[in-house]
Amino acid sequence: MPQNSSRAVGRHFLQIPGPTPLPDRVLRAMDTPIIDHRGPEFAKLAKRCLDGIKTIFKTSNPVIIYTATGTGAWEAALVNTLSAGDRVLMVETGQFATLWKVMAQKLGLRPEFISGDWRTGADAAKIEDYLRKEPIRKAIDAAGHPALLMVDTISSLASTDYRHDEWGVDVTIGGAQKGLMLPPGMSFNAISDKALAAAKSSKLPKSFWAWDEMLTMNKIGFFPYTPATQMLQGLAVSIEMLHEEGLDNVFARHARLAEATRRAVRAWGLEILCRDPKYYSPTVTAVLLPDGHDADAFRNLALDAFNISYGASFGPYAKRYFRIGHLGDVNDGWQVGALASTEMALGLAGIPHKKGGVQAAMDYIVAAHSGGARAAAE
Amino acid sequence: MPQNSSRAVGRHFLQIPGPTPLPDRVLRAMDTPIIDHRGPEFAKLAKRCLDGIKTIFKTSNPVIIYTATGTGAWEAALVNTLSAGDRVLMVETGQFATLWKVMAQKLGLRPEFISGDWRTGADAAKIEDYLRKEPIRKAIDAAGHPALLMVDTISSLASTDYRHDEWGVDVTIGGAQKGLMLPPGMSFNAISDKALAAAKSSKLPKSFWAWDEMLTMNKIGFFPYTPATQMLQGLAVSIEMLHEEGLDNVFARHARLAEATRRAVRAWGLEILCRDPKYYSPTVTAVLLPDGHDADAFRNLALDAFNISYGASFGPYAKRYFRIGHLGDVNDGWQVGALASTEMALGLAGIPHKKGGVQAAMDYIVAAHSGGARAAAE
Amino acid sequence: MPQNSSRAVGRHFLQIPGPTPLPDRVLRAMDTPIIDHRGPEFAKLAKRCLDGIKTIFKTSNPVIIYTATGTGAWEAALVNTLSAGDRVLMVETGQFATLWKVMAQKLGLRPEFISGDWRTGADAAKIEDYLRKEPIRKAIDAAGHPALLMVDTISSLASTDYRHDEWGVDVTIGGAQKGLMLPPGMSFNAISDKALAAAKSSKLPKSFWAWDEMLTMNKIGFFPYTPATQMLQGLAVSIEMLHEEGLDNVFARHARLAEATRRAVRAWGLEILCRDPKYYSPTVTAVLLPDGHDADAFRNLALDAFNISYGASFGPYAKRYFRIGHLGDVNDGWQVGALASTEMALGLAGIPHKKGGVQAAMDYIVAAHSGGARAAAE
Amino acid sequence: MPQNSSRAVGRHFLQIPGPTPLPDRVLRAMDTPIIDHRGPEFAKLAKRCLDGIKTIFKTSNPVIIYTATGTGAWEAALVNTLSAGDRVLMVETGQFATLWKVMAQKLGLRPEFISGDWRTGADAAKIEDYLRKEPIRKAIDAAGHPALLMVDTISSLASTDYRHDEWGVDVTIGGAQKGLMLPPGMSFNAISDKALAAAKSSKLPKSFWAWDEMLTMNKIGFFPYTPATQMLQGLAVSIEMLHEEGLDNVFARHARLAEATRRAVRAWGLEILCRDPKYYSPTVTAVLLPDGHDADAFRNLALDAFNISYGASFGPYAKRYFRIGHLGDVNDGWQVGALASTEMALGLAGIPHKKGGVQAAMDYIVAAHSGGARAAAE
Predict the structure, then answer these.
(1) Which chains does chain C touch, 3 or more C-beta pairs < 8 A?
(2) I need a labelling partner for B53 at 20 to 30 A (CA). Which of A309, B62, C310, D164 fits?
(3) With contacts defined as CB-CB under 8 Å, which chain D residues touch B24?
């Protein structure tokens, strides 16, 4: 690192698990004079967004677009469907699951929290056990409505396959700043008919998050209050870009970069936080450092020396791991460049590791492309 | 209008009362690669914003920055300070006052609504009368806390003088897309010590809007959940621009353009919706059309012929008036260009009016500048 | 003007006769990652530009695109067709005609200069007289080739009708920063078959400006040396915009704004520099100030007070006039805003004039629109 | 590569040896409303550029800024200093040396061309031999002025150390689209006093390229004809960025990335076109493919599969090599990402090579950073 330089050189490797690197096309679409949010041009823009976002969630129902980050959409999912004292079954998979539990408490709900060690996913069997327990089942039956299934796709939407309708989800929460390649400031609720029905009897107070007014106004291409016009300009373009690439190609690319990243980590001889391959994330990989090495210090060194940012660590393993994002508008060369920066930073930091991580990633990518080429030729 | 043109020519006259025309400098500041919202560069950006926004509200207390439009900040003001069943005294000054009343009801509060005809402002004497009435006073006394004063400055902040601390306001609600010259998607709560104290006993459920976590995280330059990074990039620059111009100059400019606009309206022989000069807005002027003329049709004609947008009409006078904005990063020539487009559109639409509105506006502006020059010379 | 403001407020009225206000769409098209100027994406871009620019000059022959401002394209026209000592007949219509004469001299040519007073256009009869004079005619005949007709359209291209082929022009010189709504940095030579033939015998040394290599490389979508990629990105979009509006609509708009401007000047009681309406420019109007008033001082005052720039004065009338541009991506409201700024600045400067210029401009514009509507209805 | 994708994913690896990847800061500085090129704001901008560019060439004399790409600046160097029939000694180092020879011929000069095989640099001893030969020396003496030394730094300026004054160069030719990180469209002549003196007796016709008028107008902050305003906006910022990083840091970075690239090539077992390490370029490395492999086919495959562009091949080795750029605003991770894309593309193309190139590059970079850290600590 030059001694007296006050400039971070070249393009920043933003490898946090979202917000993701913004495509120039999205940024430029947002860098446009603002238009009247009650005029005819806006109505066209809103329609592109409201129609387009359904194809991303794979739903034929309306999707609510909020001017708020993902946390807001989570709150919206809860206040639109539940009443004070209602029970919510949640699974402790990590930091955000924990935050959602606290949110549910603050809103006057009663979360049941299936505890976990932050290193695995939501176990369907455990969830089934819980649901069979007397009190929850009973309450559900008494209320005459079955439990609603809510899924947080903030970190995975538009990066891995997701099908709101086909999978019978009631409320899907999504955010803009991940696979949708937008800045933070927009989030979504995809809604089933069952959720819409539940909203009618829900008693939690709500106004900003209320679905009903949104649905009414959206029908004519407008919003009940001033929407984030520039975010909508970006959204229309990002949806267009995803379809130009082809959603299945988008998913295959994320899967490829995720596996390449994990192979690099293993080749370095470092441990992946997630214990079970079944629960591997297609968008982020958390890497445990050997005992005695501070992950925050490593992140700082990598930022200074190689202009790269990683996701921070939280909870029981705070400061022991860093997270490498592999999502958004990222291609093979870029991701390998990020892995190379990481391998070089590990070297510079004197953190014990084996070389060869980048090589393992490249080998996997070449094989994946060759396979694709072969499959296409057959 | 050319018959077969599919392009709106030249710069659009966005004369709605917000969002306002975005300065290029703000747009370009937002058109920048996204940064890690937990990194050192972000902390510097957050500090610029959190410190800077205080100078706009003229408060030494912290100001909460929400990723949401103004409606969200209104909800925040209520849920942070009140409990179910609390009474809220509101004054029917127009469309938004009416919306806030509905919001309060939805949140489980009990609004007292001082009725009005949408053509005047909040009458201090009437408010005093209400507050003296037995039940409210009694409830307030019983609760042991005096009423909180909340002010919605969404349409006037950074356009006319406002002093949160000096004027003893408890919660001030502000938005980004007006005098702050930003896109919609950000709003504010400036808070008094009394409001902070009230927040401790408030019982309305809240999570996304909760002040406490925001205040805690903001202290170290971060946010409890992903903030709208690009909006903050824009905010830092817009605050800088306001101070470069000088806040008092900003206010004088808005006052000048507002008066120039009203003089044009009067010269046309048309009626200003607001009956009492005491309540004239420094940022928008609503113009009543003669009976039998549809304001929406006029707005459409003006948009087609002169590429200009006006604010729509609402409520009891819907379709009878249009609103001319005069706020944001707008100079004399621009505002007169907008008034000229209006006078020409009135002509083209065949709406009865007198010529000379633009001349009246120009005469006023020249006099205002000459006065300033004279004052400076003395 | 506020006393201590360090910021020019609002949008600058760039009323110089080019460069013209750049449309956001053009600027954003240029604000894009650079591409390989020898790759397939570039070839597509080059084709859009090379094909498109022909429709602007109305020629079926190739048009040469130079990375240079208009002065360069003028030099190119001369060095590609002429040899040392060749005679060039030029007409002194103003500043640029005078510059071209000096250029011809520097390049070793012998310009015949039909003198003028900078206040009228090129008189066809005078030109005919000159061409009939013995020595020129003789030289032309001796050389076996008739005189080539070269036209400088830098200030008028894409603003008023121009037909390279139909009008039998041999070399047309054009520039990017006027009606094409681009930044300066690109210029053009449209070429007749006769000019191409003349190029074969031309002996002036040339390399950068040489047509032959350009024509060869352009055929396959490339350039003999690195072209200004971003300018081409902008050019492709500006041509698209002109056709979306419709070239005839573009011309009608310029004619309307030009006449509106002249009516304003006359209503002010000021004199238009150009003496003969036959030679009025569709893109700029020079305004003489009353004796004793310094046009440069007026321009400075207007810039400070109203954020407006005018074209400077040159030659025999230097400091006695300023020039108001009315070209590029400018609509009615904008131009009237510029005229209003001018009328207000005249007032502030204490320059004797009558009010009513803006009113006259508006009256004309309304009539022009009404006429258009009437014509369309018939 | 997905079969039906119509979108190039992620950031393009533009590894041609210029234009180089444009920093966002430069692009945004150019994405700004155009200003009056004869107004006070422009004069400030011009001063920043005219002063700043001297620090890049390391000269205290003025530097001429042309609105033209490098080829234009080469022509300018010749026409300003020479007369028809003058001799020019040139060395055949590669494609551009050959182009300059042709240019000299077209301009009526008589180039002496020291032949070469495009795989080595300019040999000082051979140049000395030539200069000692009778006819040249004699002509030089007869003319009473010694040979002028002209250096083309287009590909190396602002990437490796260069000192116009200290090294006694008479005319230095530079371009914008390489180390200066700008788009193509601007080029430079740095000039010695001897060159200025030679310009007085030079007889080649010139107008656009003439130094004298440029020097006169630049003194007061303006240009003799409309300059490329937006390019100047970019230039002011790019100079600022180079100094923020520190020129020596810029040079060290380029040297590091160049050596890392060469180590990768050697590890792959491929041959570097340049035979002699003494002549290695700090900005580009040409890589010979094994016999029987078409470099153009390889470049196409790499572009499709990995969104990367390389420099094309020319001359005697056309289609046998491709060129990897390592210049401009490029950091370690980016360059390694480009090398990784190359190694993966070699694999996908079935071109015989050894793995380990990327590893070799990383090892070198880590060592270079460690050395720097050590050196700083001592």
Answers:
(1) A, B, D
(2) A309
(3) 32-33
Which of A24, A31, A33 lies nearest to residue C33, judging by beta carbons? Answer: A24
d(CA C342, CA C360): 14
pLDDT > 70? residue D112: yes
Helices and strands in chain D, H and E counts = 13, 11
pLDDT at B375 over 50: no
A19, A31, A72: residue with CB nearest B229:
A19
Q: With an 8 Å Cβ cutoff, are B28 and D32 in contact? A: yes
The tokens for A56 are: 């991303």
Distance CA D115, CA B258 (A): 76
- In angstroms, the CA C117 to CA C178 distance is 25
B24, B26, B34, B41, best to mutate vs chain D, most D CBs in 10 Å: B24
List residues bridging with B171 in a β-sheet: B150, B191
Q: What is the mean pLDDT of chain C?
A: 93
| CA B291/CA B293 separation, integer angstroms | 6
CB C23 within 8 A of CB A23: no
Could you give the CA distance from residue B361 to residue D259 in angstroms, rounded to a whole number? 68
Cβ-Cβ contacts under 8 Å, D31 against chain B = 28, 31
| N- to C-terminal Cα separation, chain A | 50
Confidence label for B127 from pLDDT (cuts 50, 70 and 90): confident
CA proximity to C37, closest of D177, A28, D298: D177
> Has residue D100 got a pLDDT over 90?
yes
Q: Kindly report, residue by residue over A14-34, the tens digit of the pLDDT.
A: 999 999 999 999 999 999 999
The whole-angstrom separation of Cα C200 and Cα C82 is 10
Q: How many Cα atoms occupy the beta-carbon half-sphere of D233 within 13 Å?
A: 20
Give me the sign of the Cα torsion angle D259, D265, D270, D273.
negative
Whether residues C184 and D309 touch (CB distance < 8 A) is answered with no
Query: Which residue is closest to B28 within chain D, CA to CA?
Result: D28
D-contacting chains (≥3 CB pairs under 8 Å): A, B, C
What gap in Å lies between CA C163 and CA C159, rounded to an integer?
12
| Stretch among A120-134, B116-130, B212-226, D198-212 having the lowest mean pLDDT | A120-134
For the cut 70, the answer to whether the pLDDT of residue D298 exceeds it is: yes
Chain A residue numbers with beta carbons less than 8 Å from the beta carbon of D368 are none
**Between chains, do C336 and B329 touch, taking CB under 8 Å as contact?**
no
The confidence band for D1, taking pLDDT boundaries of 50, 70 and 90, is very low
Chain B residues touching residue A75 (CB < 8 angstroms) = 207-208
Distance from CA of A342 to the nearest CA of C (A): 26
The owner of tokens 């709504």 is C181
In this structure, are residues C76 and C189 in contact, taking their beta carbons and an 8 Å threshold?
Answer: yes
pTM as predicted: 0.96
Q: For D174, which DSSP code? A: E
Enter the DSSP assignment of D343.
H
* pLDDT tens digits along C90-134: 999 999 999 999 999 999 999 999 999 999 888 888 887 887 777
> Angle at CA B247, nearest 5°, toward B241 and B248?
145
DSSP letter for B198, please: H
Cβ atoms of C159 and C250 within 8 Å: the answer is yes
Say how far apart CA C71 and CA A259 lie, in whole Å.
58
Interchain contact, D28 vs B24, CB within 8 Å: no
Nearest by CB to A27, which of B31, B69, B312? B31
> Which run of H or of E encompasses D299?
helix D295-306
Mark yes or no for CB contact C344/B338 under 8 Å.
no
Rounded average pLDDT over D212-225: 94
Residue range B34-52: mean pLDDT, rounded: 97
Question: Would the CB atoms of A28 and C31 count as touching at under 8 Å?
Answer: yes
Kindly provide the ipTM of the predicted complex, given to two decimals.
0.95
